[in-house]
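Long-time lurker, first post. I've been practising inverse folding by hand and with some scripts of my own, and I keep getting stuck on stretches where the structure tokens seem ambiguous. Below is the full token string for one chain I'm working on. Before anyone asks, I'm not after the true native sequence, just a reasonable design that respects the backbone. If someone could post their per-position residues I'd love to compare against what I wrote down in my notebook.
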């Protein structure tokens, strides 16, 4: 089931990207839009109980109400214009602030003629809201722990323009489908287009780095890689890394402090008796630092050689890119 869903998702992403690329290339010169907008302000959804829905969004995601109107009178002409049932009453319209994204506007109506069942996913007019999170695995675990129905495990895209994207659907208490989506390192299509929604790539600063700060940070960086205590490593990582740090290893991308700590633990467990050693001078270039190193046991200290490129932001490590130069046999 999971593999078939992933195949469909990948195929959809690949097919949908081609016409977009063709559309972007169709015009020789940019054309001004008919209406200039800054972005999506809010998304409105109908709910059976506005108080219960507000509690769900607050408890699960931290959304907070900002405005509300209750028992709003609407006449027959208004109902006809907006295609409402003749017996409908507007009980509440409540706006929720939804993090850094668009607001969510909740509507509660009272109408004996209104359909109470959720639409099928493929019905005209059916829609969903996608919420962005930096750590989708942790988010799904939290939802499940709270008893929220999650329809699948996170589906992680590895091919096409959606590569880097992970998504999953869940059900609200009133049965509506919603989505969680995550791409903390961006999507391939974003990089190709040069357009980023939640986070642009870290830009190195041109301001010179303080050499004493760099030397101290590198010393603790190497020490952390050799530290056998997960608790002690966590303390060092918390001190010397940004919260959204990215570790780019040949085997994959690691996001965040906890995953970095786990990776170092796995690396040590797989290479008993190995030690990281800084070799040669650390090179500083604008906001980046190059650290040459060796990794191996006492009898063969240069079994593996390489260098790490550290990008610093406000004196902390924002990104680490690992390059392997040689593996001795």
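-- Answer (accepted) --
I ran through it position by position. Result:
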């Amino acid at each position: 089931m999971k593999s078939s869903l992933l195949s469909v998702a990948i195929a959809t992403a690949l097919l949908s990207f081609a016409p977009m690329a063709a559309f972007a290339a169709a015009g020789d010169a940019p054309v001004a839009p008919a209406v200039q907008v800054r972005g999506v302000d809010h998304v409105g959804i109908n709910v059976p109980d506005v108080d219960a829905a507000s509690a769900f969004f607050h408890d699960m995601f931290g959304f907070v109400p900002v405005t509300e109107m209750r028992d709003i009178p609407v006449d027959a002409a208004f109902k006809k214009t907006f295609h409402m049932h003749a017996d409908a009453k507007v009980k509440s319209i409540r706006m929720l602030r939804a993090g850094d994204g668009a607001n969510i506007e909740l509507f509660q109506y009272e109408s004996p003629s209104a359909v109470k069942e959720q639409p099928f996913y493929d019905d005209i007019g059916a829609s969903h809201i996608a919420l962005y999170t930096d750590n989708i695995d942790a988010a799904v675990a939290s939802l499940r722990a709270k008893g929220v129905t999650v329809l699948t495990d996170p589906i992680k895209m590895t091919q096409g323009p959606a590569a880097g994207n992970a998504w999953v659907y869940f059900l609200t208490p009133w049965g509506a489908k919603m989505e969680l989506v995550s791409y903390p390192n961006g999507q391939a299509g974003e990089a190709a287009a040069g357009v980023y929604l939640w986070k642009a790539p870290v830009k190195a600063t041109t301001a010179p780095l303080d050499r004493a700060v760099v030397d101290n940070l590198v010393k603790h960086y190497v020490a952390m890689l050799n530290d056998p205590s997960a608790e002690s490593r966590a303390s060092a990582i918390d001190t010397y890394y940004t919260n959204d740090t990215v570790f780019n290893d040949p085997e994959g991308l690691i996001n965040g402090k906890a995953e970095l700590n786990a990776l170092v633990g796995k690396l040590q467990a797989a290479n008993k008796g190995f030690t990281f050693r800084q070799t040669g001078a650390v090179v500083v270039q604008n906001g980046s630092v190059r650290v040459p190193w060796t990794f191996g046991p006492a009898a063969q200290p240069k079994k593996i050689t390489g260098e790490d490129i550290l990008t610093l932001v406000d004196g902390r490590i924002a990104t680490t890119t690992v390059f392997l130069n040689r593996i001795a046999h």
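A couple of notes from the structure itself: The chain has three domains: 41-116, 125-200, 211-327. The first strand starts at residue 42 and ends at 46. Happy to go over any region you disagree with.
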